[in-house]
Write a structure and sequence with these properties.
Blueprint: H1 25-34, E1 38-41, E2 47-50, H2 52-65
Antiparallel strand pairs: 1-2
Length: about 70
């Protein structure tokens, strides 16, 4: 029997899942980054994963607060 560990990615804001899964977290993050996904530190100090749509909204709201 073979056991595989697959990493998946979902948006912390809306819950949307990235279309791919991978055995390597680094490979998955690299693929997602190429399609606009972002891993970003938020004001409370934790790191969130944003899909392209939510990242744009997050960026715009941060600009409005500045």
């Amino acid at each position: 029997m073979t056991v595989y560990r697959l990493w998946s990615l979902s948006c912390t804001q809306c819950g949307r899942g990235y279309k791919e899964s991978d055995e390597s977290l680094q490979d998955l993050m690299q693929m997602a980054k190429g399609e606009g996904w972002t891993h970003k530190k938020v004001p409370n100090g934790s790191y969130w994963d944003f899909c392209p749509k939510c990242f744009q909204h997050h960026k715009e709201s941060a600009d409005d607060q500045a």
